[in-house]
Amino acid sequence: KRGNFLTNISQDGVANFTNITFFPYYQHTMYVAASYILAYFFIFVLCMVGNILVCLIVLGNHRMRTVTNLFILNLAISDLLVGIFCIPTTLVDNLITGWPFSNSVCKISGFVQGVSVSSSVFTLVAIAVERFRYIVYPLQPKPTIPVAKAAIMLIWVLAVAFMCPTVMALTVEKVPHHYMVYDDDFNNTLPLYTCFEDFTNGKMRKVYTAVLFTHIYLLPLTFITLMYGSIGVKLYLSVVANRELQLNDRSVQVRCRRGGQQMVSQKKIRVIKMLIMVALVFLLSWLPLWTLLMMADYAGLKRDQLDLLTSYIFPFAHWLAFSNSSINPIIYGYYNENFKRGFQAVCKSRPFCCFLQCDLWKRVVEWSRKGKSVYLPALNVNTRGLFMVDGTWKLFTVMQEIQVSNHRKTYRIMILRL
Fold first, then answer.
1. pTM for the predicted model, two decimal places
2. Nearest to 386 by CA among 410, 359, 340, 351
3. Protein fold of 31-345
4. CB–CB of 333/339 below 8 Å?
5. In degrees, to the nearest 5, what angle opens at C-alpha 14 toward C-alphas 13 and 15?
6. CB neighbours (10 Å) of residue 178?
7. Are the CB atoms for 27 and 97 separated by under 8 Å?
8. Where in the chain is the domain with CATH 1.20.1070.10?
9. Would you state the pLDDT for residue 418?
10. For the purposes of burial, counting CB atoms within 10 Å of the CB of 38, is it exposed (0-12), middle (13-18) or buried (19 or more)?
11. Which pLDDT score, from 0 to 100, does residue 149 have?
């Protein structure tokens, strides 16, 4: 709610009238604000924990460093930027009337959000192209790790280039004749500031919004749809051809070979399903926010309608868009067995043991390979732990307590490789 007051300033017999508008300091009631806080905190925790685990799993295991997984790592980094820079500031901005932060935070928050979204969608395009070449044209040279790293660098350069106008245009300004009232005490008022894109030409904002919508949402996702459509047709024809060959070929040896090919094709199909799900979730998560942004610039909405969008619809649209950053790790764990095993191993391990006692775990591996007993502090039988040796994740289980002497316990452990 807001209140309007008319002030009368008289000087030399001339009266000047000025409208002053007062807004409450907090935009919502306690219950609505609590629901916003819980919802945003939930996706923040999922985003940070899930994407940090994805980064650890890909970086900590040489076998996970494939071209596709490097792109997934880049997605996780983009999602972490969203969690660190965008979710907290957007939550506070949705709770408090006006912009409560500095001009620098205004620029950084908008810039990082735009760069992370651009990087994510360009990475999805790169993944679609890589899968398209791998499936549709299997005889052509496959993209290598150096090529993938160069593509990732190009992705970030393009993302930053698209968002440069945002950094220059975003600014914080005081809204004249608008004030915030804290706790309904009109003796305790604060000036109202807003963070917005200040283009010299009013039409430039609409043009820039349309350019962003076209180049980092509409065209890339249309291209991704075409790529995965072609991949789906290719896989379908491949599976049909394999089945026909198995029915016509009576050789047991050839059947086994064909069966192996079918197993490989099933793995390919599962990877494609995972990547399609990632792209689909991105499409659906960001669609409401892009729709609102286009409506705000092109629909010619009235002041009351814009207030409704800002107070209730935009917070939900932002939450849905940011939730995409927390859903991706869940998709990886559901569809990819390597990520699933990595998540399970980390969850079962002692917290941060692999980082705090790295030298100890290296000795554990060397001794365990020789079949010797090892000394480990503060462990119990059946305790599990996770550590990294030479870039490879290792999972150990304490099998037996052998000896207790001088407050030191000796255990025999079993080493498993992820």
1. 0.72
2. 351
3. Rhopdopsin 7-helix transmembrane proteins (1.20.1070)
4. yes
5. 120
6. 18
7. yes
8. 31-345
9. 43
10. exposed
11. 93
